[in-house]
């Protein structure tokens, strides 16, 4: 069957535009072709992009057996390995998702609140007045420490100290559109020795895997070390035949959680601090709301603040860190919004374009948190974490982290943007990040009577 219209320029040129400037490219396509259009990116199957909430609802609520999403995510294989939840389909995906879900939901997530506040305070206490720092780098320190603690129960020790810089440097290797090209062009994925970009990437990944293996070996040899962290849970898990997860499976799932569990939240936090300090009226209103809690508020009171929540939601709306949901590959003929699609078609819900629909979000390029106080959006209109059986496992932890990190920092410190240069959204690997990481200054501490130490 004929695919919907889309750009007619050569597939290689489409891919270059997709890598170099994805958001402007998506805006142009939506303007020209409407709710459904096809991109033909060199080296990939055609992608059918859907930015209408009705079409997205039809995909997210369809029987999961109608689609494979793991098979369509091959681009992340070099980052997370063959056994990552992201690459699984069918029963195995269902089983491992069910296994990984409890630590990221309900009371378990709330139990991380004190930890998030303590880590944030420790990082903030190192800032010097009028010494600039890059928000995204600092937020990475915080979110990586949180994920290392929740995944491994690690908060100290040699292995912990080695993993942190290795993971940061590996992620920085795709930190610009040019460097991100490695993920999209297979001919760049050649190990030409330790000096070559791909060779360097593979060696850093290998070193992280060695550290993960050492942690697995130590836990297997000393079961008494197992606690309530995610690795302990996975080590004790058995499949329907009573078999535990293999070391390969454990390493790949750990890598997935490390990779997906901190980088995206750190980027969202950098954006939030940018908007809060770029728009003084928003900062003023937020500080007034935080101050209503008085001294020593319970972290969950901070979490429930409506305007803080709206700021986090608007941050994730305007430049969603992951700007498309997992593509779904149709396993048989499917109908979406009256269009028939053959088996093998890649259907791609577009988070960014849904979030920029004028009838849902008037003046969509304006940062306006109030819109989330004025109306409620359906799970097909506001989709920063995707949806259906592929909704991001860590969404509750991400929202908790965003709110508590912002609340803790703004309660204790006066910050300002370090310069007035425009911050533009730029590809960073498979995500969208602020082009300069958002340089900030700590201009002073808030008055002693307003200093909040979360108890």
CA-atom Rg in angstroms? 22 Å
Provide the CATH architecture. Answer: Orthogonal Bundle
Largest sheet entry: 5 strands, mixed
Count helical runs. 19
Proportion of residues in helical segments? 40-55%
What's the level 1 CATH class? Mainly Alpha
Give the N-terminus to C-terminus distance in angstroms. Answer: 61 Å
The counted number of beta strands is 12
Instruction: Calculate the mean pLDDT score and round it.
Output: 91
Write the CATH homologous superfamily.
Answer: Cytochrome P450
Shape: globular
Topology:
Blueprint: H1 11-20, H2 22-33, E1 36-39, E2 47-50, H3 53-60, E3 67-68, H4 77-80, H5 90-100, H6 106-110, H7 113-124, E4 133-134, H8 135-152, H9 158-172, H10 177-184, H11 197-221, H12 230-236, H13 247-278, H14 280-291, H15 299-303, H16 306-318, E5 328-330, E6 334-336, E7 339-341, E8 346-349, H17 351-354, H18 371-374, H19 395-412, E9 413-417, E10 425-428, E11 431-434, E12 439-445
Parallel strand pairs: 2-8
Antiparallel strand pairs: 1-2, 3-5, 4-12, 5-8, 6-7, 9-12, 10-11
Commentary on this structure:
With 455 residues, the chain is α+β, with helices and mostly antiparallel strands. It has one domain: Cytochrome P450 (Cytochrome p450), CATH 1.10.630. It is built from 19 helices and 12 strands. The chain has helices at 11-20, 22-33, 53-60, 77-80, 90-100, 106-110, 113-124, 135-152, 158-172, 177-184, 197-221, 230-236, 247-278, 280-291, 299-303, 306-318, 351-354, 371-374, 395-412; strands spanning 36-39, 47-50, 67-68, 133-134, 328-330, 334-336, 339-341, 346-349, 413-417, 425-428, 431-434, 439-445. The strands form 4 sheets. Strands 1-2-8-5-3 form a 5-stranded mixed beta sheet, sandwiched between helices. Strands 4-12-9 form a 3-stranded antiparallel beta sheet. A hairpin with a 2-residue loop joins strand 10 (425-428) and strand 11 (431-434). The longest helix is centred in the middle third of the chain and has 32 residues, at 247-278. It is globular. The protein starts with 10 loop residues before the first helix and ends in a 10-residue tail after the last strand. Mean pLDDT is 91; it is low at 448-455.
């Amino acid at each position: 069957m004929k695919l919907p219209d889309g750009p007619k320029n050569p597939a290689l040129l489409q891919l270059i535009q997709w890598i170099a400037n994805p958001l402007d490219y998506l805006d142009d396509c939506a303007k020209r072709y409407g709710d459904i259009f096809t991109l033909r990116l060199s080296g990939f199957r055609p992608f059918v992009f859907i930015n209408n909430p009705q079409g997205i609802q039809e995909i997210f609520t369809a029987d999961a057996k109608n689609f494979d999403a793991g098979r369509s995510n091959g681009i992340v294989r070099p980052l997370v390995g063959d056994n990552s939840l992201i690459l699984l389909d069918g029963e195995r995906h269902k089983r491992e998702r069910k296994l990984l879900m409890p630590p990221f939901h309900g009371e378990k997530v709330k139990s991380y609140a004190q930890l998030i506040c303590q880590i944030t305070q420790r990082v903030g206490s190192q800032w010097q007045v009028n010494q600039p720092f890059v928000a995204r780098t600092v937020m990475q320190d915080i979110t990586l420490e949180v994920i290392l603690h929740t995944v491994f129960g690690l908060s100290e020790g040699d292995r912990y100290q080695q993993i942190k810089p290795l993971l940061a440097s590996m992620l920085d290797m795709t930190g610009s559109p040019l460097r991100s090209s490695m993920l999209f062009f297979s001919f760049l994925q050649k190990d030409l020795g330790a000096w070559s970009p791909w060779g360097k990437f593979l060696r850093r990944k290998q070193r992280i895997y060695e550290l993960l293996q050492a942690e697995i070996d130590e836990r297997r040899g000393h079961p008494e070390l197992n606690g309530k962290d995610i690795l302990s849970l996975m080590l004790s898990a058995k499949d329907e035949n009573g078999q535990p997860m293999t070391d390969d499976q454990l390493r790949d799932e750990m890598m997935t959680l490390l990779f997906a569990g901190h980088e995206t939240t750190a980027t969202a936090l950098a954006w939030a601090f940018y908007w809060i300090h770029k728009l003084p009226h928003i900062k003023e209103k937020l500080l007034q709301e935080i101050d209503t809690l008085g001294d020593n508020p319970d972290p969950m009171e901070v979490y429930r603040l409506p305007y803080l929540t709206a700021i986090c939601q608007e941050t994730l709306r305007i430049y969603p860190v992951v700007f498309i949901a997992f593509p779904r590959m149709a396993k048989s003929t499917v109908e979406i919004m009256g269009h028939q699609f053959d088996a093998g078609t890649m259907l791609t819900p577009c988070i960014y374009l849904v979030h920029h629909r004028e009838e849902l979000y008037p003046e969509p390029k304006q940062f306006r948190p109030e819109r989330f106080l004025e109306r409620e959006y359906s799970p097909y209109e506001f989709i920063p974490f995707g949806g259906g059986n592929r909704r991001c496992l860590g969404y509750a932890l991400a929202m908790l982290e965003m709110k508590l990190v912002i609340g803790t920092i703004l309660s204790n410190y006066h910050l300002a943007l370090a310069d007035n240069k425009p911050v533009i959204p730029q590809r960073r690997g498979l995500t969208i990040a602020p082009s300069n990481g958002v340089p900030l200054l700590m201009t002073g501490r808030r008055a002693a009577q307003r200093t909040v130490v979360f108890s």
